[in-house]
Amino acid sequence: MTLLSKPSISMEDIRNTIDTYIKGLSDELYTLNKQARLSFQEFKAQTHISDFLEQQGHSVQRGAYSLPTSLESIYGSKGRCVNFNAEYDALPGLGHACGHNLIAIASVAAYLALTHTLRKYGIDGRKLLGTPAEEDGGGKILLLNAGAYEKADLSLMIHPFVEDQFRPNGTIGSAGQSSIAIVDLIAEFRGTSAHASGNPWDGINALDALVASYNNISMLRQQIRPDERIHGCILQAPKITNAIPEYTKVKFSIRSPKMNSLKKLSQRVRHCLEAGGLATGCEVEITEDLAYADLWVNDPLCSLFKQHMNLLGVPLSQGSQSENIGGSTDMGNVSQIIPGLHAIVGIEAPKGTFPHNHAFAEAVGAKDAHLRILEAAKGMALTAWSAIVDDKVFAEIQDHFDKMRKTAENLGL
């Protein structure tokens, strides 16, 4: 596709558009932060975002792609399709300690700014997608499988982090870092109940099976690589001591840098779980959740976002595939299908704070965090604009993605 004309645009256009909505966006963000909901339960967030978009004149499909808490808003029907991912799920007991409320508002703001500018200059381009259940459930993977990204050329989002992590380098964030692939295994152990004192020899102890499996995995950790992780929790255990436990349930999260190494490690963990059942005589049933792929960093796309953010007074590092955020995201799966941006933007937080704790949950509700994330929204909108109207820019982004895919295929990643 070649555009016949490339309209001139100033950053003031997008900045002023977003500024017009700041009060509404800030109120929406405050509401989301106070009404955090877990994966697949984010109906209030979905409703508030959808209502707000409709108030701005945009149509919204709620429950898009058969996901009850998803949403989709599309502007136009032609031109390159730039997708903004709006996450809005929370953590059990911690609320928005991963800052998904800020992610949602950044994507909404970027979408509104971009569509306003596209309309002003008569350019086609689209869309916003509400992506639930990132923390648990793989919402983007489900949307990906349902065809939500089929017509998208790019997928953009930002993620808040603690700016002190970047200050030593003279920046307050990174335009792109990779993530760790992850998969969850849930094991259920079934034995036979018996009186713990009267006839314990007739019992088959499901708690012993769980403990043996846990110990097996603890020993396995000595032999895994430094960049791999295994961590778990007991989901169901006996509540009494005078009966041999007949049922227990445990969940383990397994992380490794790439999908191929994740498959190997998860198989070793599976053997540890099976061995616990074999040693105790229990039946073992293992369920595997959706695997989150490692994130592909698109260098030209990161460079473009970095340039726009630097001009907005928000200095970011370039980032690279070799840098890792230390966590996992279902955006990794999207980034291996179409070119993607998962930029890290720092906000002020108490020293020593890290996402997934109460202090970070408080930090993402601060006014300064709102303003910082709106600056990031401007950067995303400008990045999307450049990719839509500039054929050379888009070609560089696509070419880098194609090379990454070819390399991954050759290496069996």
Automatic annotation (TrEMBL):
CDD domains in UniProt = M20_ACY1L2-like
Signal sequence range: none
Q: Cross-referenced InterPro entries, in alphabetical order?
A: Amidohydrolase, Bact_exopeptidase_dim_dom, Peptidase_M20, Peptidase_M20/M20A_hydrolases, Peptidase_M20_dimer, Xaa-Arg_dipeptidase
Which SUPFAM superfamilies does the entry link to?
Bacterial exopeptidase dimerisation domain, Zn-dependent exopeptidases
Q: Which Gene3D superfamilies match?
A: 3.30.70.360, Zn peptidases
Classify the source by domain of life.
Eukaryota
Q: Name one GO molecular function term.
A: dipeptidase activity
* Location of the Peptidase M20 dimerisation domain: 187-275
Q: Which family does it belong to?
A: Belongs to the peptidase M20A family.
What is the protein name given in its UniProt record? Answer: Peptidase M20 domain-containing protein 2
